[in-house]
Design brief:
Elements lengths: L6 H63 L13 H12 L9 E5 L12 H12 L6 E7 L3 E11 L6 H4 L7 H7 L12 E10 H53 L2
Antiparallel strand pairs: 1-4, 2-3, 3-4
Helix pairs in contact: 1-2, 1-6
Length: 260
């Protein structure tokens, strides 16, 4: 097919074919690498958010609860003293910030005080995996969520570390009556110290992961294509006077010699 073209044209065509094959292979490899990089960035954001929520829990448990309970009757109850309540309320405020608007946070507990924290079937399986393997510290991946489509999730186990939490979560008779009046006595009890009581989840739309990867891929391929296009142009400009023209002259001499 290329035999009818001139030598310079053949050389350019071969370079273009090699270039296109390289672009295709690079595109496939880069797409996978950049998607993993985008996932890692979102996992980092999710981990930072969980650490923030845990810091709020710690502060509420150590500072806020004692300060409020000093003025409460033993049977009185203030939801502001509950670390999980404080963390979720802070997240509601945080989510109003455009930088966090794409994130969704959830505490999923199989035995919660507030049934709004009950896990769905998928989250229950993740919690079970954390319970079965205490060394497992993090899970992430894609999951289809009803009403939200395909989501990318990051999950970490929730470990009960504070003995003070057992005041409200050991047995119903030990909990404040005002708390029982709000949440009832059927959920959120029989928790054990140093046991996994649930998991923290951060969700983000999977399309954001793909979008970030596509943007990076387009930018890198654009640079790649531009570089190779310039390289082919320069090679052609340099090859023609130094290689192609001498070869043509040599070919003419050979033809003349062969003709006698």
């Amino acid at each position: 097919m290329l035999s009818r073209f001139k030598l310079g044209t053949k050389f350019t065509a071969v370079l273009c074919i090699v270039f296109l094959i390289g672009i295709c292979i690079s595109g496939v490899v880069l797409s996978s690498v950049l998607e993993q990089r985008s996932q890692a960035q979102i996992v980092t954001r999710g981990t930072a958010l969980m650490q923030t929520m845990n810091s709020i829990r710690e502060y509420t448990n150590v500072k806020v609860r004692p300060a409020i309970e000093v003025n409460l009757h033993p049977d009185e109850f203030s939801p502001e003293t509950v670390p999980s309540y404080a963390a979720n309320k802070v997240f509601e405020i945080l989510k109003k910030n455009p930088e966090f608007a794409d994130l969704n946070y959830k505490d999923a507990l199989p035995n919660p005080t507030n049934i709004a924290h009950l896990p769905d079937s998928f989250e229950a399986k993740i919690v079970d995996r954390f319970e079965q393997d205490p060394k497992l510290k993090e899970l992430s991946g894609y999951q289809q969520v009803a009403g939200k489509g395909l989501m990318f999730y990051t999950a970490k186990p929730l470990l009960l570390k504070k003995e003070s939490c057992l005041r409200c979560h050991s047995i119903p008779s030990a909990a404040p009556k005002a708390m029982l009046a709000v949440y009832g006595d059927k959920h959120g009890f029989d928790w054990k110290l140093n046991s996994i009581i649930g998991a923290q989840f951060v969700y983000v739309q999977a399309e954001e992961v793909f979008h970030n990867a596509r943007q990076a891929l387009i930018m890198i391929l654009g640079i790649f294509i531009g570089t190779f296009a310039i390289a082919i142009l320069l090679i052609n400009l340099l090859i023609k006077p130094t290689v192609v023209t001498p070869i043509r002259q040599l070919a003419k001499v050979s033809q003349q010699l062969s003709a006698g």
